[in-house]
Amino acid sequence: MKNKSKKEQTAEPSKYPQGYFKPKPCKWCKEEFKPSSPSELYCSDECKDLGLTNAYLKRTYNITARDYNEMFREQKGLCKICHSEGFVMAKHHKMKLVVDHCHTTGEVRGLLCHNCNRALGLFQDSVSNLQASIAYLHQH
Predict the structure, then answer these.
(1) Domains of the chain
(2) Is the pLDDT of residue 1 over 60?
(3) What number of helices (H) and strands (E) belong to the chain?
(4) Is the pLDDT of residue 12 over 90?
(5) Is 126 helix (H, G, I), strand (E, B) or coil?
(6) How far is the C-alpha of 64 from the C-alpha of 54, rounded, in Å?
(7) Are 64 and 75 in contact (CB under 8 A)?
(8) At residue 114, what are phi and psi to the nearest 5 degrees?
(9) Alpha-carbon distance 117 to 100, whole Å?
(10) What pTM value is reported for the model?
(11) Which of 103, 115, 13 is nearest to 61 (CA)?
(12) Torsion angle of C-alpha atoms 105, 106, 112, 113, degrees rounded to 10
């Protein structure tokens, strides 16, 4: 994540006209908190992670973090294709399963592990390419 952790978000209140930072509602949970800097929007790192994940999912797939969590529960936390738990690709990633969507319609199809999601992409979401691959595997 680009945003600093709560520990790193500090500013000198004396450098601002009012001399302190006014309490404000957390952008995610709406609970009031006293910020450490004027740009601080979340009351905790957990709320920050949830808020940023929600914004990413909304912007990219037009779903919310709650929608993602519901799909995750429905799939019992497993990839819809290989039924593995998936894995986190990098330190800054938070989700083991990624959102799979149709590149033509934008419709969300489900949650997949990174490998299954990449495989569909490499096969260009083509049923005939996948069927040809299955036939190939049966032959060999």
Answers:
(1) 23-61 (no CATH), 77-140 (3.40.1800.10)
(2) no
(3) 4, 4
(4) no
(5) coil
(6) 5
(7) no
(8) -60, -40
(9) 6
(10) 0.76
(11) 103
(12) 120
